[in-house]
Amino acid sequence: MALSLGLVPGSAHRLGSHWDGAGVNFAVYALNADRVELCLFDAAGHAELARLPLPGQEAGVWHGYLPEAEPGLVYGYRAYGPFLPHAGLRYNPNKLLFDPYARMLHGRYRAQPDYCDHLPGDPCRPDPRNNAAQAVKAIVYSPGFGRWAADDWTDDVRPAIPWCDTVIYELHVKGFSQRNAAIPQALRGTYAGLAHPASIDWLRWLGITTVELLPVAACADEGHLLQRGLVNYWGYNPLAFMAVESRYASDDDPVGEFKMMVKALHRAGIEVLLDVVYNHTAEGGVGGPSFNLRGLDNTSYYRMQGDGHYENWTGCGNTLHAAHPRCMQLILDAMRFWAEECHVDGFRFDLAPTIARMADGAFSGWSACLAAIQADPVLSRLKLIAEPWDMGPEGYRLGGFPPGWAEWNDRFRDTLRSFWLHRGVTRGEFARRLTGSSEIFERRGRRPWASVNFIAAHDGFDLHDLTSYAHKHNEANGEGNRDGHDHNLSCNGGIEGPTEDASVLALRGRLRRALMATLTLSQGTPMLLAGDELGHTQRGNNNAYCQDNETSWLDWSAPDDAFAAFTKRMLALRTLYPALRYANWFSAEAHGGYERADVDWRNAAGRPMTPAEWDAPGQGALIVEFGPEDTSDRCLVLVNADAQPTSFMLRPGRWLRVLDTADPEAGEALFQLQVEVPAHALWILIMSHEGRVTW
């Protein structure tokens, strides 16, 4: 590309690089820098063609306009200023920095030692090595650039699924389709693979309304993983918040392909949520690589200690300073990019308390960043989900986010695991989780959907392994099996790992079905882990973050068809009976002239539960009747987590069983007065109406 290289002052009001048809405007924030140079490279990204000082500076934003520049231009920055590590200032122009607002990146980080900004063994002196030849760089991007040129959203309609009807399916873009023979080889493991009819047909058949994608923003592989021949498969180590990860693209335009994927899912009525990481970056702690934020304005973007080191409230070496206006701007601009340019429908925030901290580090549900999101006319309309814990002061904040937010509910996960697999919690605790964890969320204008309920997620045992392993087996991660959580509340049925013992397999199947059934009928928003319905196993690895292989890739060649059909049926029952997805809080008292309460709790003998029974340990039998006044059917749920069959007394009437988790093929059957429910099982019954087809 032949350029006149006549860089002139540009605009400071839109950070990043933006093409207007005649040239490109460059703007980057570096408040404490003395000078910032725009560095241009050849298409291969190796030869540095020019260093052009940015001529404009307003409120810490350095800017310049380059006439004749076009999309595809490879560039980076060099920032000049004081190198005073004890004061948090780390300017080193020998280190090429890429644009934090980049939509596309050139090159990958390979843990080269010259990324570090200081001399090895001497943290107070800047490293003189020029790392430009191998450094990650930015590429000027514009909509319509690349093979996936169509950027027309005129026919795109957001599904806008009501929260009470939402069923979330957490998946990894690559792992979901990498081994699916129904998808062309070239598209497997890509955005296009997820958009393929084979993928979409499966999601629709199963009953999924909303996919939640593990991070798809550009990420870096940690040095210790690269040394062991591994990668950061999950992607929770962000490089650039607005650069679409190229590893999941089938061609050279990851942004365009991602947009096409969103459009395809929307046409099928499926929402797209993104798991985003706005709590730390891949730069790590002192001694980590300098990619951009550290070398541009370290003290604005990161929370610092008094000696120039980083607060590490994320366990990843650094913590973003979301209360700082410029850091908050970066987070909000990134969200708007995904929402407005890519049409995603919402976000799940990794370690969300980090963005909810005030300038002094204290958590607040009305922090500056959360308030800005709530006030934004675009972002406030999206689905917003918090992972409500980090490692900072008072970092466990379940229930602490404001109205309009949902939260991952680990109390639900642990309670259901303990109840079904060990009878380790009381029936009172189980009942609270079944009805939306009201003691946590029923306040300040929140609804039951605020509780995102899950049994398994990407982090921890999947559902198959939860019922097949008593202990983690993470040896393949190369960390001596020290990584991963030890508090799994799992149960192997008597034999660790794979077995052909029919009795053990039968028990495992019962437990899996009971867990899945309880998840889907509980108040709140159910979230399934992709592959659980297939019987996917990670062979006991409960921290497969670095396993970009068949440990994590779903095996479509030998799915558990029976369990997939059971999962589909459970989701269909949830849709069929409004009482199982009721949007308001249940009342245990009759109200509004209605003769019965919204929810009725009884023991196996059919009598109201007493306080002593609610709190008694080791008891697993419970009758729950759902039936709010504005729903047409009352659903009766018989729960038997005990290891032996239990007789239940029913209230008068003709009850039609529509589900038996112990024998999902049993079909419908009518019962009156008394029934026997098998061990480790759950039944769903409805009041029978003559001539009415129920299933």
Please, could you describe this protein's structure?
The protein has 695 residues and is of the alpha/beta class. Among the domains are: 16-139, Sandwich (Immunoglobulin-like), CATH 2.60.40; 587-687, Immunoglobulin-like, CATH 2.60.40.1180. Helices cover 21% and strands 21% of the residues. The strands form eight sheets. It has an eight-stranded parallel beta barrel with strand order 14-15-18-19-20-21-22-23. Strands 24-25-26-31-28-29 form a six-stranded antiparallel beta sheet, covered by helices on one side. A hairpin with a 2-residue loop joins strand 5 (56-58) and strand 6. Helix 9 packs across helix 10 and helix 13 packs parallel to helix 14 (561-576). The radius of gyration is 27 Å and the shape is elongated.
Feature tags:
6-stranded antiparallel sheet; alpha/beta; 21% strand; Immunoglobulin-like; 31 strands
Please give the count of helices: 15
The proportion of strand residues reads: 15-25%
The backbone outline, from C-alpha atoms, is: elongated
Helix and strand composition category:
alpha/beta
The CATH homologous superfamily of the domain at 16-139: Immunoglobulins
Radius of gyration: 27 Å
CATH class of the domain at 16-139: Mainly Beta
Kindly report the CATH topology of the domain at 16-139.
Answer: Immunoglobulin-like
Mean pLDDT: 95
Give the beta-strand count. Answer: 31
- Uncertain stretches of 5 or more adjacent residues: 691-695
Distance between the termini: 65 Å
- Binned, the helix content reads 10-25%
| CATH-scheme architecture of the domain at 16-139 | Sandwich
Strand adjacency order, main sheet: 14-15-18-19-20-21-22-23
Largest sheet: 8 strands, parallel, barrel
